[in-house]
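Notebook entry, structure prediction.
Reason for the run: the old model in the group folder had no record of what sequence produced it. Starting over properly, with the input documented here first.
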Amino acid sequence: MHIRAFARSPFAALALLSFTAAAAAQQPDTGKAPPKENKPLGFLTDTTTKYGLVPKTFTIAVGGYLPSVHTKVKLSTPSFPGTDIDLENKLGFKTTNQSIDIQAALRIGQKQLITLGYFGFQRSSTKSINDSIRFGDSLYEAGATVDVRTRLEYYGLTYRYYFWRYARWRLGAGLGIDAFTTNLSLGIKVASGGGFADSAKKSGGFTAPAPMLGIYGDWEFVPRFFLRGQLQYFAVADIASYGGHFTDDRLAVDWYPFHNYGIGVMYHYVGTQIYKKLDNGGKLTFNYDIQGPALYLTAAF
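New structure, fully documented this time:
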């Protein structure tokens, strides 16, 4: 079932606000480091009392991301307005994808955290189109067999400051930078030497950094189980030839069955409409709607 953007749904906002409401009865953090104990951890050991909210200093998580992707691309020139190309419906791209997902976090103070995230994937499709498509100054007539290849890489970097930090929960805000490296190439398949080869190939792409404003929360709702949430959004118009709006939301549950090692599941949504004005007077626009679950293993030190 297709799920709407977290940033536009009450579900994500309520999930973050629940950190405060559910933990209202908790005692505030005294600021003293929790006492160290050498006793082994039991299945429901209270990690907050013994060790504080993880990550302690450095955390890394590696797993798999299984998003559904919906994409529209448009390349216009001063002579031709171009066509909105739906890669899934018009060009036969699969909506389901898979990618490695990497997350890391570094604590730089009692209330400060720096995080980094990455995923990326490539897709390709060959299809006979039913309607004509104009990509820049190239026209692809109905009935043509079009070969399409696209690639996306995502990098997310955030600085977080937790204004409210208590024994079992914390809530804060911060700044982030999401960077998208994306490109698209189209070519007509023509008969050549008993097979097919690309002809009239056209491509476009760019790397676009996007500053983000965010709200972040963590809550240990039962011992060794953590609910973590993130809401990020930003809109910009015509800065260094770039513009658009961006959303990057996460909702995750981490379980630490061992002191330093755990397992987590996350729902990650990235939505963006981004454009770049080209030197020749043209404009390249990408619309991405990427969302799905991720399962990962994590280590905290």
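Summary: Residues 10-22 form the longest helix (13 residues).
The old model has been moved to the deprecated folder.
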